[in-house]
Specification:
Elements: H1 2-15, E1 29-34, H2 40-56, E2 62-67, H3 68-72, H4 74-80, E3 86-88, H5 96-99, E4 105-107, E5 129-133, E6 135-136, H6 147-150, E7 155-156, H7 159-171, E8 176-180, H8 196-206, E9 211-215, H9 224-232, E10 239-241, H10 249-255, H11 261-274, E11 279-286, H12 293-306, E12 310-315, H13 333-356, E13 362-370, E14 377-381, E15 387-391, E16 398-406, E17 410-415
Parallel strand pairs: 1-2, 2-3, 3-4, 5-8, 8-9, 10-11, 11-12, 15-17
Antiparallel strand pairs: 6-7, 13-14, 13-16, 14-15, 16-17
The structure holds S-adenosyl-L-homocysteine and iron/sulfur cluster.
The site of S-adenosyl-L-homocysteine has 17 residues, from β11.
Length: 418
């Protein structure tokens, strides 16, 4: 979401005649777009701001902070970094153009409804794969999470404007779109009431975009119709990011996740029945307050049972303003680290096993970059998001790749000649 917001701000500025700089040392304006899901981001921000202030003491420099940390910690930033010129919150990044005309400016307004900004100028990371935001914010209030506070309540984008953006991307010959939102599966078209399953079907039917992805899905909101639509339209990639966070029902309840682990496993089994080659990925938090060894073992059991394609794992980080912040953060940091390393090693083994099964198979790959370590190779992804190093090839193309080698994090292969 943050990357996409940055692309939107960059697009607005470029259409106003601003030019991108290589880095902060050569820039006249620096915009720091921030995330605050975990504590670390805040400290990183202040150390970067200190560096920018060092530059500002020697020459003219406009410093702007946007995003979640700006939204949540405006007073702290004002106090610790009074040299910051402009601050914008998560709902007001699109005001960047007017903000830049002022010497000091801040705006943290929340909006109840979707604010449509022109999509044509968005500065995309490349010309073949694009993010398309379909909703923002969250109403779920998981007890550990700041997102409902930093991004505000759920706001859904009208499907008519989503489809218009996709049509525009199609005309530009984009090959892949990624529908974005905090919980995309709670999507409801504010105009027609259409849900995510119907939106996906509409896009799959009406557009020539070849790969359609969506993330993130919330297990309590996921309708099995989404899986049925995925099975019907292969261009909706068989990949779902659907975090379970913890395997213990006691912890899930303390987290206010809105499902039991049995319900989660049942949902996953149903999805697998409908879409047998589904690649599931998850987020996991270890060391939530009150998490015992036994609770943690339940998380391990789920990881072993489902064998996720990918896992993003985090140590619980107490966030001021959330409900869990009031609970004692009573799992020692060493134990959190131990648990994190344990599941990361386990996941590595699972990924290696899964990836080895792909050796000898031919898989469709969309190449994204030249390999920085080897200019004779391109780097792309299969439908699951798994990285593939390809011998030769051009960037931004689909290839049928014969998989020749596998590691836990990536595959290697060569272009299959017809
Ligand atoms: N809406 C998505 C997740 C968005 S936040 C969902 O509910 O699945 C991305 C991930 O950051 C979460 O899935 C969670 O694993 C992690 N996260 C959020 N708050 C956290 C915290 N306080 N400490 C550690 N990890 C956190
Ligand atoms: Fe945060 Fe929960 Fe909302 Fe995800 S569903 S963004 S974890 S509050």
């Amino acid at each position: 979401m943050n990357v996409n917001d940055s692309e939107k701000m960059a697009g607005i500025l470029i259409s106003e005649g601003y030019k991108p700089a290589d880095d902060e040392n050569s820039a006249d304006i620096v915009i720091v777009n921030t995330c605050s899901v975990r504590e670390k981001a805040k400290e990183k921000l202040f150390s970067f701001l200190g560096k920018l202030n060092g530059i500002k003491e020697k020459r003219e420099l406009k410093i702007i902070v946007t995003g979640c940390v700006s939204q949540l910690l405006k007073d702290k930033i004002r106090k610790r970094a009074p040299y910051v010129d402009i601050m914008l919150g998560t709902n007001s990044y699109f005001k960047i153009k007017d903000a830049l005309k002022k010497t000091k400016f801040s705006d943290f307004q929340f909006y109840k409804n979707w604010i449509e900004i022109p999509f044509e100028p968005i500065l995309r990371k490349n010309d073949f794969s694009a993010y398309v935001s379909i909703m923002e914010g969250c109403d779920s209030f998981c007890t550990y999470c700041v997102v409902p506070f930093s991004r505000g309540r759920e706001k859904f984008r009208p499907s008519s404007s989503i489809l218009k953006e996709i049509r525009f991307l199609e005309e530009q010959e984009f090959k892949e779109v990624q529908l974005l939102g905090q919980n995309v599966d709670s999507y409801r078209d504010p105009e027609t009431g259409m849900d995510l399953a119907s939106l996906l079907e509409k896009i799959a039917k009406s557009s020539s975009i070849q790969w359609i992805r969506f993330l993130t899905s919330h297990p309590a909101k996921f309708s099995i119709r989404i899986a049925e639509i995925m099975a019907k339209y292969p261009k909706i990639l068989h990949s779902i990011h659907i975090p379970f966070q913890a395997g213990s029902n006691k912890i899930l309840e303390l987290m206010n996740r809105g499902y039991s682990i049995e319900k989660y496993l049942d949902l996953v089994n149903k999805i697998k029945e409908i879409v047998p080659d589904i690649a599931l990925s998850t987020d996991v938090i270890v060391g939530f307050p009150g998490e015992t060894d036994k609770d943690f073992q339940y998380t391990v059991d789920v990881l072993k049972e489902i064998e996720f394609e990918n896992m993003f794992s985090f140590k619980y980080s107490p966030r001021p303003g959330t409900k869990a912040y009031l609970l004692e953060d009573n799992v020692p940091d060493e134990v959190k680290t131990e648990r994190l390393i344990y599941i990361q090693n386990l996941q590595k083994e699972i990924q290696l096993k899964n990836n080895l099964k792909r050796v000898g198979k031919v898989m469709k790959v969309l190449t994204e970059n030249i390999n920085k370590k080897n200019p004779n190779e391109t780097v792309g992804r299969i439908y699951t998001g798994r990285i593939v190093n390809v011998k030769g090839g051009k960037v931004g193309e689909f290839y049928d790749i014969l998989i020749e080698e596998a590691g836990p994090h990536n595959l290697k292969g060569s272009i299959k000649e017809d």
